[in-house]
Amino acid sequence: MAEYDLTTKIAHFLDRHLVFPLLEFLSVKEIYNEHELLHGKLDLLSDTNMVDFAMDVYRNLFPDKEIPTLREKRTEVVAQLKQLQSETEPIVKCVLFYIYFCFNFCFSMQFRQEYLDTLYRYAKFQYECGNYSGAAEYLYFFRVLVPATDRNALNSLWGKLASEILMQNWEAAMEDLTRLRETIDNNTVSSPLQSLQQRTWLIHWSLFVFFNHPKGRDNIIELFLYQPQYLNAIQTMCPHILRYLTTAIITNKDVRKRRQVLKDLVKVIQQESYTYKDPITEFVECLYVNFDFDSAQKKLRECEAVLVNDFFLVACLEDFIENARLFIFETFCRIHQCISISMLADKLNMTPEEAERWIVNLIRNARLDAKIDSKLGHVVMGNNAVSPYQQVIEKTKSLSFRSQMLAMNIEKKQSHANRNEVKALCSFAKILMIRPINLSCFLFVLSEKKIRIARCKL
Amino acid sequence: HILIFYTVSDKQNRIKLINHNYLDLLLSDDEEDTKRVVRSAKDKRFEELTNLIKTIRNAMKIRDMAKCLEEFEQLCRAFLKSKTIMDKEGVPQFYIRLLADLEDYLNQLWEDKEGKKKMNKNNAKALSTLRQKIRKYNKDFETEIASYKEVQSCSPDAFTSSSGSDDDDDEGITAKSLLKKKPQEEEKKAPEASKFLKGAADEESESEDDEESEDWGSDSVDSGSESEDNEGAAASLAVVFLKKYDSRRKKHKKKERLEEEADEEAEAEEGGWEKVKGGAPMVKEKPKMFAKGTEINSAVVVKKLTEILQARGKKGTDRAAQIELLHALAGISNENNLGEGILIKIKFNIIASLYDYNPNLAAFMKPDMWKKCLECIDELMDILFANSNIFIGENIAEDSENLAISDQPFRVRGCILTLVERMDEEFTKIMQNTDPHSQEYVDNLKDEGRVCGIIDRLLQYLETKGSTEEVCRVYLRRIMHTYYKFDYKAHRRSLGLQGETKSEQDQEESEGEDSAVIMDRLCKFIYAKDRTDRIRTCAILCHIYHHALHSRWFQARDLMLMSHLQDNIQHADPPVQILYNRTMVQLGICAFRQGMIKDAHNALLDIQSSGRAKELLGQGLLMRNMQERNAEQEKIEKRRQVPFHMHINLELLECVYLVSAMLLEIPYMAAHEFDARRRMISKQFHHQLRVGERQPLLGPPESMREHVVAASKAMKMGDWRTCHSFIINEKMNSKVWDLFPETQCVREMLVRKIQEESLRTYLFTYSSVYDSISMETLSEMFELDLPTVHSIISKMIINEELMASLDQPTQTVVMHRTEPTSLQNMALQLAEKLGGLVENNERVFDLKQGVYGGYFNRDQRGGYQQKQGYHRGGYEHLSVTSKLLFTLFCGGSSQNALSLSSSKQLPSVDMKSVFLVWLVKLNVCVFLCLWLL
Question: Taking every annotated instance into account, which residue ranges of this chain make up the domain PCI (chain A) (predicted)?
């Protein structure tokens, strides 16, 4: 199954700490050689300060060897940590103190730049050591304190998001994600290339959130498919994200929007079919472009295998299979007027009895206008063509109402205009300091018509 | 210097300028004269006359009778003015001569019936008037003319060519007739003068090979005085007159020259070398360039160089001679081992003066000149490559140059990139101005390889030495020479075919990387490094073009979309726009080859719908525009033309467009047969169809267009076999399809598309006839496999184009037969129109009153507006509706009176009343609609 594995591609766009969960997952699935995986892990760890973890991995990899340089590094790291901690402590205390007692601490106490930098460095160090909760906490302080123009502001947001993800704190992660997205989108300073890179990262990091947060699957469609900048980023930088987008759309519960979304998705998939293809996108292509139900069925089976081995998508395997079946069936029904149950069962990967039960359920739940001919073993669709009479009625239904509305609006507008005129006259009278009635006489000479209106109002 | 070169350039100009420029030239010569000479009244008059005579002679030569007549009238007037002088001096011989010649000439023309017929009306008229006039006029001079004719018959040698066709001949005669008298005259002059004259004559005869040198060769003195003769000499010279007239003028001039020469000599003595005689062959020149004793070092050479260069651009400088001089100088510096610095400096200047040789910017260099230039650049590159310690640059100031001191790196002012760019441009110009169907074109095109070679070398050189900006520029040059060439080598390699023989294979390997790789590398560098927008735009376009040419459709498309060029290309300059058009066309053709018919159509639509594809692609000017532009514009446009070897075949383009339009339009037409709101996909295609229909007799198709039209007709009937045979046959193959590199694939694709679209058309057209139809039959009919048929039909059903559904157990298509009847169709249309009407009214109200009118949300309306367009007013809609009502109910409804009467009340301007009328009508309509059904 290694050919459909995207870990290597995705890892390019992730922080090294975020790759560990992926590697853990892979080692469980045993697609790759365990030994190589451990090697990879060790390489990843070499640039972090998670020395203990590294030692564990090393021991796993070479059980009989002594760990060479790691011990020294450990002491070094610990010392550094201590030092940073001592530097940061007073600052944090100050911050806490002021947060509790006085909200505008920024002004009362000249919070100097180097304090902020220290805070940031400490948070970063914490993160590198694998202490994500600590990092998240300090980064929170940092974000509250610094203006958006600070050079570390964006980095702190990224760090916060990563920490929240790694702590599996999805609510908070979602919030951070939105904030980060706003920052990136509103950033006018960076070059298009930089924004593109930032967006690509965001897309990848957000996968963690979207596939774990309960509302994630709606948001992923909104973000990836309907935000042109992000869609562009996907098309240019990482077409493999289409797999996740497709899965999200197929498993999406919202039936009403689905058709339109699918249409848009098919367009994108077709456009990108030359750069990226996997069973999941091919499934959609088979179903909605070629209407080739047999191969759709084949692809569905392949999809299963792909989903099981994908870190993000394992959770939605059930949903996916169920929905995909429904899709096949729905499309099938729209095209056909008479289907034999045995064939359907074959297509849906079920036994005939199961299939029949499934269809009966569908009919009962009123999602399908059909009847079963049990003698021949056929499902007969109801005819849902709209007669021209009905069409004409539909089309002309609202016309008179709309016309009336228009007429009323015109009247309203005219009376409104009249009232305005009267108001103007009255104020004019005030200016002239005469009584309105006298004014009307006065104006009589000028314009008969206008005065008439004014008088009747007065 | 100026004076020395003066006569020569003067002469050259004269060869070129036959017509009116002549007068200007002469006048300008006069200007110089007038400064010095106060002429007698007689001189003035005579000059005026001679000028006029000259013009007349010119007009005679080009048979411009109108001009002749005009000038003749002027001449008569001028003659009258100078009557007093004439009385004193007698009628001048040249005047008589003209009169005689003119009469002869006119008679001759008059006799020539054929020629007269060819004349345009104006000229013919002028001819007859002039003939009458001159007859009358000549009566006054009968005696003189007679005597002149006598003289002529006596000495035929001297005058035979007097009425000849060439201007130069005139002077030749002048010279000849002068021969006898001049030497005696000259002997009276100071010895210096004669010496000088000799020199001048010498040089003149050398530098002008095209002149009849045998004339001058015999005695040089004569040609020396030639320039002075300009003004008066053209007249046929009676000996007496000449003596008096010309010698006087000469005296003035001679004095002038003497003075100048004295100056010059003094100057030369100071400088320590002899004076320069430009243009003499090198052997003679060398000793003259520097005095014998002079030690030739770099300072001296540089000084000399600047001196030569100072003459540059000045009026009357002989450019050819200057080039020779520079060459000589280069030779000298080479002989004396003055070092590369100086050599490079001189080379730069040689190339520059080669470019200068042609003063007119619009004209193109002569190929041989250009080749010389090519060689020079090649040598220059050799030197640059051999010596890595030379810095050249535009911004090195003249005085900070280091030419001589060899232990420091040389610094030379000059930009080789500009020179190469200019060379390349000249190459394009040469190609533009050569007849593309001649052998000459092929010969010139062979030099393209050398140009590429030079650019490649320059590229190597600049990659190590140049700034990024320069590298970008030279990369662009390289790209421009690569992008339009199909890489057959790579193509063959991708097909897996190796060269047949071993040697060919070796050659292939040695030739290096694919053009695709090169393009990629160069373009990406430019994308990253370029600061000017233009170079990047060009690079992107070329890159896309190259992708498209090699059928890498997706890359090409993505690049086009990502670059967002479509948005702002209209602000670019015309050459870039032409490149853009070419790219779009190539993109369209590429899409077609890949079977993306819709994309192909979209890409080609803009170019083809204008009907000016030729002009838009820079492949020729359209004739009908001739009135709209003047000569100047035309010249500019001509300069923008793409050379022939880069052309995109226009017939291929049109065919691709028409075929893709056919594949889109025919099924669409079949599907929307009754739809009133049907829109044409391609106007041009419809136009072709109409042209086809208009023909009274339909023979077998001949041209490409006829083939497509015939195929469309067949396809309309769902007859794919006939359609196929019209699109793909011998004729079309040779005309169009064989032009593609992968002919076979394209043809297969095309057949398949024809089958599919015919199937669709068939279903649309005949679905009303069938109750059900088996898919197997369909697949047999159209020779498509079952899954494809299934997929096509499914798609039609899903998109609700075909009202049918599949019956799975029997594998048939069952028609629903719910297509509305024509009456129902009209009712539906009416309903739709009503909806549009309401909406329009709301919009009108909105526009007038602000946002009060609408109660439904704006998105809905937005969608509608997109379909409808803004410009249809509500009133128009009303009338449309009433017409529709009328037609609908003519069949037999008593109510139509009502609707008609209401529509008669319509033209009231007050909005409210219109609205009320409309409201009533609307209700009636809705009611009628429903009642009718």
Answer: 209-386
